[in-house]
Q: What sequence folds into this?
């Protein structure tokens, strides 16, 4: 629809630095090609015995059916929102010209996110049976199969995010108008967030409802082991691992990279006088380096029968990190250089980000692995029953934010300082903009291994499924040992990535705050300029007056924090209701067909899958719309009815000096923008802490149970084990539904406020 | 030490409105006399049989021993802090003149709070046996005995708070220098908060450790009923009700009234041009009205054998509210009047506060009473075991902040608007100051029944103890029925007051934010004035630039939110550890003396009481010091090392317009003040939500268990009941230790930042 613009972009204009855009696009295409090559390799491998294929096919059909119906629901919601955004932008003559661009980038973000999720899962649910088949001969081959299957997700997610942002930048004329176009890309992040929220929430409800339901009715009522083929919910449980952990986390990281990308470009635009186009394109190049480093990291991983698979995966991670760091240094020296710039300080910001990523992973390990104090305290508390198990698990969960918060504060303060130092010789840019760009570089550093980490994460559900297939098809002990080893490594990687995801969400959120404030400044600037002589803009004005002691801001902040609690409550209740439906169906199946328990006839797996699918998708709508609706309502209501607007007007009426942007002596109404800022910032802080509590508390409960199952304190079937199972069940919706959905919620708040910012001023 | 000042205050200067100060002091003294009269009446009553006295004496001795040791610990901490505050103030010549006044008011606040707590408990632990004795003849007499015993606490707490603030105002020369003296009273609030934090935390740890410990070992291991005299921990349990619920909540409300009083006086000082001295003294008169209305409310309560005691208590509450409203109206029309003022709007603010109090009580009832959906959902979830009980209880807890947050937002927005309207005709005062004073009036409205509500609250532990005494001394069934009825009403009042306490904490916190910002403005003003010609103050400057997108502010905010989680975690773990010591001691006693279980010899109650006392006091120190230390550390570190200071300096160096207060062209360093503001505000929001989750979640679990015990879903000893007991045990440290301590933490953050504000600039 903007064909002339597109052609203009391809025309041989080549401002300084335009080459980097083409490099980014090229690398994204290469990475996609490599992912295709990996996927073909995986799919061409041995797909195991007929027994195994029956199970694998059932998982595949269930997962694909879920995804299809999920995308239909999300698509419908996205279309409605696209119309709303379009209409909102068209309302005012000032925003009307951007309506189409915003909607196009919104839809592009949504489609790319969906595509990434679908491709990743397409490959994962085919990799699981190949990993299972490979485990019959060699641990190394099984490990590689699972990791490469996971790498498809990692690469496709990051590459599509990069490709989407880079192409839109090109198409919207970023090479001609580099300072304005980043603001027009915010829709891409919003589209990605929207899909991510529903993917993570729907998938999270599905996976835990199936898991809790299968456990409750299988282990507890019928007394059959986990993954027993007689349990009608067992396929739904395996499907859940794919749609929750795999498609959900993929959408989460897609959103992180997309939002961080756009936010960093907006902050780069503020430094245009220093770095020119290169400062804006820098985040794209970092993602490109991320892709190349991760490809190498995946290829170097190999192991032998003796080694702990986790060591092999970590080797790949270290290689990736080292390469990413080298690339980062090259990019900093190549792109962020110029008169008065000291690139070493800026590289330091990137290193801070990488170190923060490591710290988050270590802290997560400390809180969730059985050899440290926190899990041991839960184990000991299990000896006095379920109540003390729960109390100590919640106490551990509430303790967990302390160290990560200290790490985030240190990372932000240091990278801010490094940014100011690195650009100290540059004039005409405020120290604030310099420091904030430093924190943005740190965020890019933290995300600079995202593709590899996502590959490790997707490794989790693949090995989990491989283990399930091996278990259900009655393979020999040696094969089971291999898949058990892989499964255990997969559980670790899943827990670590959650720590990484929440850490990157908090850093990215800070970046996105800053982008929001910068966007409001830019909107006010346009508004004043449009007013001509009647407009007044104080020299050097920035939008920084987010005072929580103003009533609408405080109300916004309270509502933002409350939103995270209410959302979590709705998500957890949704799991409970959906799990009840699973329990009911399994009971019905056992009653209707006694042959199931006898082992003479097969349960109707598909029926159970269908029930969970329908229920999970229905349940995700209300909390999802709440998250979308609340910031919009707060912004619009405050903008139109807020007393703080009158307050400022009255100060001016009294004849005092004007220190705020004004048109005809009336200050620009910032009440809506301020209230939304309060909601965004405090909602983010509350969400980050609650997510840490839930992720780490849930992980600690899980591993306390597993520790007892290794035979400690009486082992399986002891009273302590029963107590630990209670804790594990409580932790399930925490760590796999509400917690991960909160990461996404945080970023959705940021992207929705970026997209709708023009409506709040 | 300031004798001349004191004499000057008594000299016949009588500025307009000084009479109100004498009225406030007079009413406080009358209320204290009336409390003495009530206490004498209670103590002169029949003290029951010798059997009953043995138990009552054991409770009394335990409670007094705990309180004595607790006050020693708190006293030592307070003295150390007094030295620190004194030294801090003496460091700078600007603050040195206020060092003595601040320390004096700090110690006065601490001593008054301690005195109020001691007096209240002195009477409560004597009222319990009198209420038990009265229950042998009449429900009406027992109800009155318990309520009047509670009223002593309520009246002493509010009267001492009023007397302390009013006397200090007088002694510090408030009648001569009314605009400056309110700032010198902030130490009073800090002293009160400090005692309250340790009283609530130590008492909360004590009460729940004894309760959980006694339950675990008694009910679960030995199979003996609650309050069975063979359980060595049973006296410790009854002592706990006094030291936690009674002394702890008393200190909490003392602090609320003291902090709200001082905060409202500071905001009143900002409106000095409009109302003069009367605007500053208005909060004192509202407390005086509160005392008179509550005295009448207590006196009108009576009941008969048939009536639900809750109805009788509510009648008293309605009478108190109606009288308070009348008094409020009279005070508004008498004191807040003048040219351009429309008192009806201001009265509206007070009405909003009263309505908010009612709303909080209703919402608390909805979430914690068995007849509504939330508790019923927990009851139903108990049918599928402890895990689902816990999940649904946590889901209810996370849902609970939604409605109260909506109520707070509405109350703040409306009262702000009413304030602006009511003072619309007044010039020379910003709309912001007008609106904020409106919210302050609403807060006073909410607290205008505090003394009666505190009486109802203290009614709870008195009736609980009375029930225990009756149970342990084997009284007839009819007597038990009476105390059961009273006990059940007491449980309700305890739950409702917690809702009220958190509601008033959140409104008061907003008031205290505003006071903090106003204080910083005043400190900067003094600093600029002291600099003479070198100082530059922009016209109409106020301290409003608390931007969460600045790194130190964001770090402060994150740390503030994290503090509430870490504090709760420490408190809950302390309960667990202390409870383990109780369990151990009971097991030891059963083993050492088999005659205990046989009923032939008496357990050593005092030994168990001593163990809990020592452990609870030891455990309260670390979390308490964390709360005191963190804001101080954030303020001082940010002030001295913050990059944002350099940032502002750099903006100015670039030759742009100065819009901030500066001395010799260098802006005043506000980095510390800003970071602390972030910590205070976001810490408050996080704390309020977490407290609601814990209070209401805990209350809902408790009542779900009680509902099943009425015979529903299998009644006592069914599987559902076992599951519900798990939830109740988890909820105990939530609702009685961490939750109530969080209310106090919120206010402590506010008062400590007010006291130390001069050190942060």
A:
């Amino acid at each position: 629809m903007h064909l002339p613009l597109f052609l203009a972009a391809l025309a041989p204009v080549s401002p300084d630095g335009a080459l980097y855009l083409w490099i980014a696009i090229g690398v994204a295409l290469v990475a996609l090609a490599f992912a295709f090559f990996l996927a073909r390799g995986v799919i061409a491998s041995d797909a195991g015995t007929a027994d195994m294929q029956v199970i694998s096919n059932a998982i595949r059909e269930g997962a694909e059916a879920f995804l299809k119906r999920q995308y239909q629901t999300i698509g419908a919601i996205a279309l409605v929102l696209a119309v709303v955004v379009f209409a909102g932008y068209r309302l005012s003559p000032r925003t009307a010209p951007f309506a189409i661009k915003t909607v196009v980038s919104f839809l592009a973000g949504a489609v790319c996110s969906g595509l990434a999720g679908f491709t990743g899962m397409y490959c994962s649910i085919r990799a699981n049976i190949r990993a299972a088949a490979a485990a019959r001969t060699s641990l190394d081959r099984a490990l590689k199969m699972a990791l490469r299957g996971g790498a498809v997700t990692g690469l496709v997610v990051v590459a599509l995010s990069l490709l989407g942002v880079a192409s839109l930048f090109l198409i919207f004329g970023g090479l001609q108008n580099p300072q304005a176009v980043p603001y027009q890309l915010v829709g891409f992040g919003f589209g990605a967030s929207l899909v991510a929220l529903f993917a993570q929430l729907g998938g999270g409800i599905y996976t835990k409802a199936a898991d809790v339901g299968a456990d409750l009715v299988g282990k507890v009522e019928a007394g059959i082991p986990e993954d027993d083929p007689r349990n009608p919910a067992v396929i739904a449980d395996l499907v859940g691992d794919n749609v929750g952990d795999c498609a959900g986390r993929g959408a989460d990281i897609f959103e992180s990279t997309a939002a961080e990308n756009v936010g960093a470009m907006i902050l780069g635009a503020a430094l245009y006088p220093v770095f020119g186009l290169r400062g804006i394109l820098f985040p794209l190049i970092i993602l490109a380096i991320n892709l190349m480093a991760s490809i190498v990291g995946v290829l170097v991983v190999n192991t032998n029968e003796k080694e702990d698979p986790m060591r092999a995966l970590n080797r790949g991670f270290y290689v990736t990190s080292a390469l990413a760091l080298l690339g980062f240094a090259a990019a900093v020296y190549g792109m962020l250089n110029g008169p008065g710039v000291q690139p070493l300080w800026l590289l330091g910001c990137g290193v801070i980000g990488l170190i923060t990523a490591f710290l988050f992973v270590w802290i997560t390990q400390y809180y969730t692995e059985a050899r440290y104090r926190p899990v041991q305290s839960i184990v000991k508390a299990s000896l006095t029953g379920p109540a003390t198990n729960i109390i100590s698990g919640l106490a551990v969960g509430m303790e967990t934010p302390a160290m990560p918060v200290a790490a985030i504060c240190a990372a932000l303060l240091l990278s801010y300082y490094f940014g100011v130092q690195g650009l100290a010789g540059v004039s005409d840019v405020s120290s604030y903009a310099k420091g904030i760009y430093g924190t943005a570089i740190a965020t890019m550093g933290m995300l600079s291994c995202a593709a590899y980490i996502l590959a490790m994460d997707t490794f989790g559900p693949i090995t989990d499924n491989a283990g399930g297939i091996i278990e259900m098809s009655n393979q020999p002990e040696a094969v089971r040992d291999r898949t058990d080893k892989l499964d255990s490594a997969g559980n670790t990687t899943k827990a670590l990535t959650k720590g990484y995801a929440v850490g990157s969400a908090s850093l990215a959120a800070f970046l996105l705050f800053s982008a929001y404030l910068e966007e409001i400044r830019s909107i006010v600037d346009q508004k004043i300029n449009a007013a001509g002589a009647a407009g007044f803009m104080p020299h050097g004005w920035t939008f920084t007056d987010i005072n929580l002691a103003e009533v609408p801001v405080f109300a916004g902040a309270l509502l933002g924090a409350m939103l995270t609690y209410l959302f979590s409550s709705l998500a957890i209740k949704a799991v409970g209701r959906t799990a009840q439906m699973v329990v009911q169906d399994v009971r019905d199946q056992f009653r209707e067909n006694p042959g199931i328990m006898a082992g003479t006839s097969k349960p109707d797996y598909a029926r159970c899958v269908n029930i969970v699918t329908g229920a999970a998708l229905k349940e995700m709508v209300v909390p999802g719309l709440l998250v979308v609706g609340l910031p919009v309502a707060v912004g619009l209501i405050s903008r139109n009815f807020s007393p703080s607007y009158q307050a400022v007007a009255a100060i001016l009426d009294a004849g005092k000096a004007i220190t705020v942007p004004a048109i005809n002596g009336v200050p620009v109404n910032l009440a809506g923008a301020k209230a939304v800022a309060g909601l965004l910032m405090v909602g983010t802080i509350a969400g980050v802490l609650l997510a840490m509590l839930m992720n780490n508390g849930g992980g600690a409960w899980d591993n306390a149970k597993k520790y007892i199952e290794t035979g400690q304190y009486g082992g399986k079937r002891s009273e302590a084990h029963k107590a630990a199972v209670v804790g594990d069940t409580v932790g399930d919706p925490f760590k796999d539904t509400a917690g991960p959905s909160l990461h996404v919620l945080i970023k959705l708040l940021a992207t929705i406020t970026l997209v709708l910012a023009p409506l709040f001023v």
Observations:
- The beta strands of chain B are 535-536, 662-663, 666-667.
